[in-house]
Amino acid sequence: MANDLTSVESVQIMKDAMNEMKAISPVFSPTKKQTVGNKPHILSLVLGTIFVVFLALFVTGFGYQPWWIFARNLMMNF
């Protein structure tokens, strides 16, 4: 019963924690969508994908290999 998160005490503790976070950082809002970082450029994605595919082909020897070896090496690079 001590780990029951639906008890009145647990709910009050969570409300107090949210109020403290809002007091520390008024812009904090869990319902507000927050973006971290920048959106990637499409050119970077295309060049990165070409590089990873070339690297995976290089590791498999550019020769006839079972498709699962190529796929495994390709996934290891992502």
Q: Can you put this structure into words, describing what you see?
A:
With 78 residues, the chain is mostly helical. Helix content is 59%, strand content 0%. The protein is built from three helices and no strands. α2 packs across α3.
Topology, pairings included?
Layout: H1 8-24, H2 42-59, H3 67-77
Helix pairs in contact: 2-3
Output the keywords.
3 helices, elongated, 59% helix, single chain, mainly alpha, 78 residues
Enumerate how many helices there are, as a single number. 3
Average per-residue pLDDT, rounded, comes to: 76
Low-confidence stretches: none
- Gyration radius (Cα, Å) is 24 Å
Give a count of the beta strands, DSSP E runs of length 2 or more.
0
Q: Helix-strand pattern, N to C?
A: HHH
Span of the ends, CA to CA: 45 Å
Describe the sheet with the most strands: none
Class derived from helix and strand content: mainly alpha
Shape: elongated
Tell me the strand percentage band. Answer: under 5%
Q: What percent of the residues sit in helical stretches (DSSP H or I)?
A: 55-70%
Question: What is the gist of this entry?
Answer:
With 78 residues, the protein is an all-alpha fold.
